[in-house]
Design goal:
heterodimer; A: 261 residues; 88% helix; B: 253 residues; alpha/beta; Rossmann fold; 6-stranded mixed beta sheet; 4-stranded antiparallel beta sheet; 8 helices
C-alpha cells in the first residue's frame, strides 16, 4: 500500500514537474522572443519564408475546416430552428458559434497539427543534425534567426487565417442552408449581418492571436529542446501536439471567460 | 611554423550528468599549427572540440581565446570571437533548405560588408578549389557524404577564419575520399598565414601526413602532447595507439 502510494505520488509529481517545465520553458522563450523583437535584428528573408510556409501553405486546410464548421453548425442549428419555427435565429446561432468558439478552436487545432508539429520536427531535426550548432559556430544567434520569424509568422498568419476561416464558414453555412436544409441562403446571411456579432468576431481574432503565440512558443520550445536523434524528434513532436492542443483549450476558456465579464 | 597561443585551456572539465567526459585538460592551440586531437572513440575528443569553439561550456577550468575566457564574455563578444572560427561538423550540419552555393555564402552574408558579386565569385572559386564547381545549385540532400564534407569545409573556411576546427573529417567516408579530405584540410590550412587548425580523428595514418603536433585524449584526459618524434618517450599506450591499432575501429567521439 505504502509502495503504491509512493508510486502514485511519484507519477503525479513527475507529471506536475513536466507541465511546469513546459510552461516555464515556453514562457521563458516568449520573453526572449519579445526581447529579440526590439531592436529588430531578425532575418527579413527568413520572416517572409516563414510567412509563406505558415500562411500560404496552410490556407487550404483552414478553408476546408471552415467550410465544414459552417456546414455543421447550420445542420445542428436547423434542427431547433425547424422545431421552434424561429427561423430568425439561424444566422445568429451559426455566426455566434462559428466566430466565437467552434471556428477558432477547430482552426487553431488544425493549424497546430499542421504548422506546430511541422515546426517542432523541423527545429528538432536541425538540432540533432547540428545545424543549430552550426549557426552558433557562425556567430548567429538561433533565436532571432530561427525562432522570431516563426513567431511573427504564426501570430500574424493565424490571425489572418481566422478572418479567412470566418468568411468561408459563412460560405459553408450558406451553401448547406440552401442545398441541404431548405433555408434560403439570403435569410441566413441577412440574419447573421443583423446580429451584430462584432464582439464575437473580435473575440475569435484575439483567440487566434493567442493561439498563434502559444503554438509558436510551445512548438519552438520542444523543437529546440530535442535530445537523442530521431527518437527524440518523434517524442518532441508528440509532446508538442499534445501541449498545443491543451494550451488551445485553456486559452479558449480564459479568453471566453474574460469576454464574459 | 607555430606562433602565439590562440586558444588556451586550463584545467578544463566537462560532464554530462555525473559522468565526466573530459577532465583536467591543459592545452594550447597555436597560430600557424595543425594540431591533431587523437584518441580512441568515446574518449572525449569531440566534446573537447566543442569546448574549444565555445559551443559547450566547461563545468570546471577555463577556455581562453586570445586571452578572453569564453565563459566570462557577453554574448555579443562571444559572437565577435566566433567570427574568427570555422567549424567542420562531423555530420556536415549543412542547412538543408539552402543550395550548396547559399550554404557556403552564408557566413559571408551574415558577416556583412562583402558585396553580392564578390560573394558569388569567392563561393565559386572555393567550391571549384574543392572540386565542387558543378554543385553550386544543388541541395545537400542531392550530395554524397564526401561532397557534403567538402561543402562543409568550404563553408568553414570561406570567411578565412583564424581558427578552423575539423570534427572527424573522414567519418563515414571510404579510404580514398578520406585521403582526399585530409589533403584538402592541409591545403586549406596552408592557404592562409597563421591559421590555427585542430583536427579530431582516430584515423592516425592520414593524420600523420598533415599534423604538426598531436594531443592524445584517453579516458577524458590528455595522455600525450607533442610531435610524432616525442612519442617514443611517452606512455606506452600512446605508441600503441599511434603505431598500432588501439581503438581505431571505433568512431570518433
Amino acid at each position: 500500500m505504502n509502495g503504491a502510494l509512493k508510486s502514485l505520488a511519484s507519477s503525479v509529481g513527475g507529471a506536475v514537474l513536466a507541465i511546469a517545465e513546459t510552461i516555464g520553458g515556453a514562457v521563458t522563450l516568449l520573453f526572449r522572443i519579445l526581447r529579440a523583437l526590439f531592436p529588430p535584428r531578425y532575418d527579413a528573408e527568413g520572416v517572409w519564408r516563414s510567412f509563406y510556409n505558415v500562411g500560404v501553405k496552410s490556407y487550404p486546410i483552414v478553408v476546408m475546416t471552415a467550410l465544414f464548421v459552417g456546414a455543421i453548425m447550420v445542420i445542428q442549428t436547423a434542427f431547433y430552428v425547424k422545431k421552434t419555427g424561429a427561423t430568425g435565429i439561424i444566422g445568429y446561432g451559426v455566426g455566434f458559434s462559428v466566430f466565437a468558439e467552434i471556428g477558432p478552436i477547430l482552426i487553431g487545432l488544425m493549424f497546430s497539427g499542421r504548422v506546430g508539429a511541422n515546426n517542432t520536427a523541423e527545429l528538432g531535426t536541425m538540432v540533432v543534425t547540428e545545424q543549430v550548432d552550426a549557426l552558433r559556430a557562425l556567430a548567429i544567434d538561433p533565436l532571432p534567426y530561427l525562432v522570431v520569424p516563426r513567431f511573427l509568422a504564426m501570430l500574424g498568419m493565424l490571425t489572418l487565417l481566422m478572418v479567412l476561416g470566418d468568411l468561408f464558414a459563412i460560405v459553408g453555412a450558406a451553401l448547406t442552408a440552401q442545398l441541404l436544409v431548405g433555408f434560403h441562403w439570403r435569410v441566413l446571411v441577412a440574419d447573421l449581418l443583423q446580429s451584430r456579432l462584432l464582439d464575437e468576431f473580435t473575440m475569435g481574432l484575439v483567440k487566434a492571436a493567442c493561439f498563434g503565440i502559444s503554438i509558436s512558443c510551445i512548438s519552438c520550445y520542444f523543437g529546440l529542446a530535442v535530445r537523442g536523434g530521431a527518437t527524440g524528434v518523434g517524442r518532441a513532436v508528440n509532446n508538442s501536439v499534445v501541449s498545443n492542443a491543451t494550451a488551445i483549450f485553456v486559452i479558449d476558456f480564459v479568453v471566453g471567460y474574460l469576454y464574459s465579464l | 611554423m607555430s606562433g602565439d597561443a590562440v586558444i588556451v585551456c586550463k584545467g578544463v572539465g566537462k560532464r554530462y550528468g555525473r559522468k565526466w567526459i573530459v577532465r583536467d585538460i591543459d592545452l594550447e592551440v597555436r597560430a600557424g599549427e595543425l594540431l591533431g586531437l587523437i584518441g580512441p572513440g568515446g574518449h572525449g575528443k569531440s566534446v573537447l572540440l566543442r569546448l574549444l569553439a565555445g559551443l559547450a561550456t566547461p563545468d570546471e577550468g577555463e577556455v581562453r581565446v586570445r586571452g578572453k575566457n569564453l565563459a566570462d564574455i557577453d554574448p555579443f563578444e562571444l559572437a565577435e570571437l566566433r567570427r574568427e572560427y570555422g567549424y567542420l561538423f562531423q555530420n556536415y550540419a549543412l542547412f538543408d533548405f539552402m543550395s550548396v552555393a547559399d550554404n557556403v555564402a552564408f557566413p559571408l552574408r551574415q558577416a556583412g560588408g562583402v558585396e553580392e558579386p564578390e560573394i558569388a565569385r569567392r563561393v565559386k572559386e572555393r567550391l571549384e578549389q574543392l572540386g565542387l564547381g558543378e554543385a553550386l545549385d544543388r541541395f545537400p540532400s542531392e550530395l554524397s557524404g564526401g561532397m557534403k564534407k567538402r561543402v562543409g569545409m568550404a563553408r568553414a573556411t570561406i570567411g578565412e577564419p583564424a581558427i578552423v576546427l575539423y570534427d572527424d573529417p573522414s567519418a563515414g567516408l571510404d579510404p580514398v575520399t578520406s585521403s582526399k579530405i585530409f589533403r584538402l584540410v592541409r591545403t586549406m590550412h596552408h592557404s592562409q598565414d597563421d591559421v590555427a587548425s585542430v583536427v579530431v580523428s582516430h584515423d592516425i595514418d592520414r593524420m600523420k601526413v598533415i599534423c604538426d603536433r598531436y594531443v592524445m585524449i584517453f579516458e577524458g584526459k590528455v595522455l600525450f602532447d607533442g610531435p610524432e618524434e616525442a612519442i617514443e618517450g611517452a606512455d606506452p599506450m600512446v605508441g600503441k595507439f599511434f603505431f598500432g591499432s588501439l581503438g581505431q575501429s571505433s568512431g570518433a567521439s
